[in-house]
From TrEMBL:
Signal peptide from the UniProt entry: none
Protein name, entry field: HDIG domain-containing protein
SUPFAM superfamilies: HD-domain/PDEase-like (SSF109604)
Domain HD: 27-136
Superkingdom field: Bacteria
UniProt organism field: Kribbella speibonae
Pfam family, one: HD
Length: 182
């Protein structure tokens, strides 16, 4: 599998961002997630180049949202990457990073506007990108989130999601965060 370079990924972001400000927001977020994920590399048996590319591409679907529900950005990103000829191993970073993973039951129970399926990480690389993503928000202005802050946010989706995030925290630990932090 050929993994795109940082330069190629940046060009994809630039080509698909509807505005300069959306490019700056999303691409910077993806760079931050990549940096956070790299903090966990020591001691892990993973494909670090694949994690880098996945982290840099995981939110590419945000550019296709227009006014649709935010939860759709993952499947939109997967579809975009697939349409560009990327292998499924790259596309899945877009579709399986939302929350702590979305199950088929979540889609049905919450009537989510995405195809009924499981959107869960299947590889350590996918899981690491999902986890690193929890510590940075594209809010305006962007902020870093502590593990406790994210745990409180994910609680609205149920105890199972809080438990899943706790498992990830126990497995990977906490990254060193930049500023500002909430």
């Amino acid at each position: 599998m050929e993994i795109p370079t940082d330069r190629e990924i940046r060009a994809l972001h630039r080509d698909h961002a509807p505005t300069r400000s959306s490019f700056e927001l999303v691409h910077e977020h993806c760079q931050v997630v990549c940096s956070l994920a790299s903090q966990f590399f020591p001691g892990l048996d993973i494909d670090t180049d694949l994690v880098r590319a996945g982290a840099l591409l995981h939110d590419i679907g945000v550019y296709r949202l227009e006014s649709t529900a935010y939860v759709r950005h993952g499947v939109l990103g997967h579809a975009l990457l697939s349409s560009l000829g990327f292998p499924v191993e790259i596309c899945r970073f877009a579709s399986c990073h939302t929350g702590v993973g979305i199950t088929r039951d979540d889609v049905v129970r919450q009537a989510l506007p995405i195809p009924v399926d499981d959107y869960l990480p299947r590889t350590p690389e996918e899981e690491l990108v999902l986890y690193a993503d929890k510590f940075h928000s594209k809010r305006q202005p962007p902020v870093f989130l502590t593990g406790d802050t994210y745990a409180a946010e994910v609680a609205r989706f149920g105890a199972g999601k809080v438990a899943r995030f706790a498992e990830l925290r126990a497995r990977y630990g906490e990254p060193t965060l930049g500023q500002p932090v909430i």
